[in-house]
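Reply to thread "Modeling small-molecule complexes from scratch"

Following up on the discussion above, here's a worked example others can learn from. I took a protein sequence and the SMILES for zinc ion and predicted the complex. Inputs first:
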Amino acid sequence: MSTADVVSAKAALVRGVGGPFTIETIEVAAPREHEVRVRMVATGMCHTDLVARDGFPVPMPIVLGHEGAGVVESVGAKVTGLKVGDHVVLSFNSCADCPSCGAAKPAYCYNFLAHNFSGVRPADGSSPLSQKGDRVSGNFFGQSSFGTYAIAHERNTVRVDSDLPLELLGPLGCGIQTGAGAAVNSVGLKKGQSLAIFGGGAVGLSALLGARAIGAGTVIMIEPNPSRGALALELGATHVINPKETADVLAKIKELSGGGVNHALDTTGIPAVVAVAVETMLPNGMLGLIAVPPPDATLPANMMSMLIRGVGVKYITEGDADPQEFIPRMLGWYRAGKFPFDRLITKFPFDQINEAAHASEKGHAIKPVLVF
Ligand SMILES: [Zn+2]
Ligand SMILES: [Zn+2]
């Protein structure tokens, strides 16, 4: 690689636990054999970015960001299927070689942490990012998209049609994929079946969108924030339950669904909520757990009750999605008018990244998207 191939970029660095994000000039290396360099157009902000900023172990200083959308600026020598000028969405990365990757289940890659949280290329411990010769950690989710240029791997770079609104598409790479995939992939929701969704944030509302896209029947959203409840109704929830105003949420779900729902999703990570969710399901139901729980939490489920109904509980990563297959599938729904994920997005200029994080934490923005 020649130094002439390095580009300088504006990126948001996190230098210490808790942040803030500081926008600085860094250098981004040329792409290696199986990498691409992408000029970012916009990037979503996901809860995991803030978890990493606030102490989930990542080596700092680091450039976070893992819902990038942009245009391929240069390609490595062995990249096939991507070329300069392609519009792309970046998703999580995976190793390609483990049993999960071999079974087209990259969300359960045995080497997921190394490929998404280590801050380096797992093969040799290098980072594609630097600042005046000093190391800056990159490769967050195989991309580090909080910058004007990002290095991604061909595996986690998904080409999209150039007539689509690229600046809206980044969240398809993580948060929206996670929610929609949880409904239609992970718990196996089928057309006409019923679903209860606990929590109407970005992931819960995306699960609702996925359920609607495949023609689910009753979809009940349990959400205490009235404006999010109202949005859920607009997006096709058949019922919204405000748990602050409902004495017995379980009884209400059974009443609204005619005895119980086929499947349920928890996006809250709160054990007391999971305890209700596991009781809402009809026989052979599956409860999908998505949120990051308190570190010492255990499942609060009655085993006899589960046995009698034959219900299951599954923890979900990235909606069981293979991004190369699932992102085009979501875009097909979007084109057909069945998946209005743009309704979840609030745009911010990139230099207002701290304001975007604040809006997300305060619940004022469901899915912030930073536009470069
Ligand atoms: Zn793997
Ligand atoms: Zn994410």
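What I'd highlight from this example: The pocket of zinc ion (ligand 1) is lined by residues 94-95, 97-98, 100-101, 109-111 (CB under 6 Å). The first helix runs from residue 47 to 53. Questions welcome below.
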